[in-house]
Write a structure and sequence with these properties.
Blueprint: H1 2-19, E1 25-29, E2 33-38, E3 41-47, E4 57-59, E5 90-95, E6 109-122, E7 125-135, E8 141-153, E9 157-168, E10 174-175, E11 181-186, E12 198-201, H2 208-211, E13 219-225, E14 228-236, E15 245-248, E16 253-257, E17 272-273, E18 280-290, H3 299-302
Antiparallel strand pairs: 1-2, 2-3, 3-4, 4-5, 5-11, 6-7, 7-8, 8-9, 9-18, 10-17, 11-16, 12-13, 13-14, 14-18, 15-16
Length: 304
Amino acid sequence: MRHSTRLILILSLLLKCVAAGVEPLEAEEKADRLILKQDGDVIGEFIFRHATMLRPGFANLRAPGGIQVTRHFPPIEGVDATDHADLHPGIWLGFGDLAGEDFWRNKGSIRHDQFIKNPEWKEGSLTFATQSTLITSKGATLGGMISRFILTPQERTLRIEWDASITPTSDGFYFGDQEEMGLGVRVATGINEKNGGLITSSTGQTTAKATWGQPAAWCDYSGVINGRHVGIMIVPDPSNAHPSWWHNRDYGVFVSNPFGRKAMKQGETSLIEVKRGETYRLRHTVIIHSSPDAKATDLQQLLK
């Protein structure tokens, strides 16, 4: 009887998704990554172990409709710009200065330890959670990181929520002041500003040059590929302990950075200390979006 009730609930959820025109997401686990699928099609990967990308992240993500919106990982010679090949997979968390250690340029590593919640499709979202360890360039343990993910597909969007909790296991831990700190995205080469794409911030400013270093509630990077307007928006959670400045570049990277006040030329040096055993929480929502044609998406509508 219990199994029958559970089966009815699962079928009910599936019917709701079908009625809404949205197929469920699946996650196929491999030794080093989750292969993310929808209706049998691969829509991206969550890589948790990699020889040269020493931190977890999403790669090769596709917008609804199938157009890839993050740069190929690894970059394809002759198709992609190949700079920062191991540093910009797609979506990642990186920190150029954690207690003097560099977790942006792959000096230190964010080692995947285990899934503390296996991928599960429930109530219209795919959820999973991981436990990682921050390892310094000398092999010492600096702290731990718990990441909780919620992936929610809709007709024209895919929302990825990344809720990270970082807990130091040693004294003297701090987030330093650099421009390469926070949650980063590398968009597909075809929509970077050098190829006709555009960065827009919540303030109404546009272009990487005008938005670099500025505070904003969100930034979007989008353009047209194969006749369809596609893009990615990063939305820092309003409950984060510190607001974000933006490290935005015309070659395709943009970063929500709540740590680099001086690096972003916005004031005195920022130094955020976290005591051993305490937890610093950092939350973002990344919204991948697509239009049925070349007409730009109403960015305000994505926030509703």
